[in-house]
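ok trying this again, last paste got cut off
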Amino acid sequence: MIGAWAFVAGGFGWALAGLSLTGTLYMVVAGRTLRRFYAHRPVPAPRREGVTLIKPLYGAEPRLEDNLASFLTQHHRGPVQLLCGVQRADDPAIAAVEALQHRFPQARIDLVIDPAPHGANLKIANLINLQPHIAHDTVVLSDSDMAVGPAYLATLLAALDRPGVGAVTLAYCGRGDAGFWSRVAAAGLSWQFLPGAVFGAVGGMARPCMGSTIALRRETLLKIGGFARFADVLADDYALGEAVAGLGLGVELAALLVTHASTEPDFAALWRHELRWGATVRDLVPVSYLLGVIAMPLPLALLALPLQPRAALICVALALVVRCGVAIVADRVQGARTAPLWTLPLRDCLTFVVFCASLTVRSVDWRGASLKLHAQGRISANPEIPAS
């Protein structure tokens, strides 16, 4: 009996080591793809067409005013409307918008305060309330926690003009704005999410459409049913991209990197955020999500250590070297150090733990509400669990 157990354990150890080695090789390819995708490309010429930048806001995030300001300092010659929306008259984000209006007196910065509810997704409810106030035919939707460079609009508009393109999206790196745990969260974006997202898009294995940026024509937005179509969808950005693709149009990932401002003040906030996103992706693309464990070579090698120590030690060393190399490539692409490299083992192990935990979760916390997950990324208010 003991011999049989040792044989099974040894075989499992070899399997883990093999998965780790496969993941390490994958990370080598993903890192090279990332570096090549963001190699220097000429910036498109400034444009003159009108653009509406839509910003659904909720709460006073660190550096919110500066993040919003980055969208107003563009190499763009046409009119720009920054359309901001909140759902409460006492939302702290209002102060940031008012400060921005004072800071850029010549800019068109519109603030809409509308508490009207629409479905379970509060962000989409905000967007539904903003839709009637769109002033221009080119619409760019982006989350409030994004910061961009001056070539942002020129790049989006050039990509949106390509034949067959219905929407343009952008991948993003992380920037920690609220202390240690926010930097760990940012490292997950820069060092894990970014290489995988670019590799999947370039290789034709994924069709990303991300809340970091979705640019489309107002006509396209109306054809897919407007924002109201996504009122009960948690992964609204993904669903919007699928709806555009359903029209026979492409969703292009443009070669411009933007920055996501991570604001998790503690481990609990980081855990809730990453568990929510992991569970959402699991329900949308379950097979791809399960296969994503390959992108976690370090924790796989660590699990193999007590079962196949010699082989696992080699895998640990290889995974550490390659993962550090990918982290360095990602940080060079974004032009800043996301987090200290010594946090990488912690970050990778945390990614694996979140992955395992997300496989069974059926409800998530988001913006103070408890939401129940349903098939195909749909959500409803969860009456069984009070909001935290």
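PB: full thing came through this time. Residues 2-37 form the longest helix (36 residues).
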